[in-house]
Amino acid sequence: xxxxxxxxxxxxxxxxxxxxxxxxxxxxxxxxxxxxxxxxxxxxxxxxxxxxxxxxxxxxxxxxxxxxxxxxxxxxxxxxxxxxxxxxxxxxxxxxxxxxxxxxxxxxxxxxxxxxxxxxxxxxxxxxxxxxxxxxxxxxxxxxxxxxxxxxxxxxxxxxxxxxxxxxxxxxxxxxxxxxxxxxxxxxxxxxxxxxxxxxxxxxxxxxxxxxxxxxxxxxxxxxxxxxxxxxxxxxxxxxxxxxxxxxxxxxxxxxxxxxxxxxxxxxxxxxxxxxxxxxxxxxxxxxxxxxxxxxxxxxxxxxxxxxxxxxxxxxxxxxxxxxxxxxxxxxxxxxxxxxxxxxxxxxxxxxxxxxxxxxxxxxxxxxxxxxxxxxxxxx
Length: 380
What we know:
Layout: E1 4-8, E2 17-21, H1 34-47, H2 49-66, H3 70-82, H4 84-104, E3 110-116, H5 127-137, H6 142-154, H7 165-168, H8 176-198, E4 205-211, H9 221-229, E5 236-240, H10 247-261, E6 266-272, H11 285-293, E7 298-304, E8 315-317, H12 329-332, E9 335-339, E10 345-349, H13 353-366, H14 369-372, E11 375-377
Parallel strand pairs: 4-5, 4-6
Antiparallel strand pairs: 1-2, 3-7, 3-8, 6-7, 8-11, 9-10
Helix pairs in contact: 5-6, 6-11, 8-9
């Protein structure tokens, strides 16, 4: 590390003062967004190392083969007759190497199709109906009602969003039974459309991943799907909860890893949220924001590692990148389920939420369009 110094001496031969300029601190590479893409490039390099090593060998053989004449070929044939054991051993090693490569190479993952659930029109909630029901409930004070009205006007939501049937009633009837009804309508509605559009038999599904943050009943949501469609007994099921909006990407990543292990099978990912039992009836403003933003909805995705599905698949999964910020207390508490002063349970959205999300938004702006989208389109 280089330092610069200045020496100053007094006219009377006094002491010399040495001033050293400290070097600038090194950047924190661990917090650099580009470090993730260095790791991604290293992963691609290691995954294709065999191909990269094989290419020079093939090129060298092709160059030597282009220089051979007929006499050289005849001489090689005579040598092979006298070294049959060596030739068979070498051929076996080549076949074994190719087989190992084909068995261990990453398998492509295709998105065959997806389906989004659309509730019936009877569950649409207009802004004026939303505010009228909030007033009739009687639990919101004037400040809370005015705050919800402002959030609705600035949220960007339209007049065609949906609320579950239990919240349309006056007074609302949130219960375990009505929450199950909402979950069944969303999950089964999306899956019915998915199976119909892809002509896939539910019994062919080998992997099932369901994510829902706030509603995790027993039996689980994945078990509800298995029971509904009588899926096979050796299916691999996963139920993700408490992971917020990132759970959809995590579910895709989990399904991708499972498809690398289990050959020639389908994976279904169901992503949804349930708000029947998680509607907030208190007056803390940070907990009222989810009431104005979250609505009924869900989606189901069919993934496949079968080569025959490449022709009909819409996308191919190129890569997945996830950065976990749970070690940061600010990020950890920006979306937090808790009780307010009156003991009413709700989800708090802190003011730091946008600050936490902003760096990742900026990161997406800096990468190439092909890198910011993990799905490569196969067909229009």
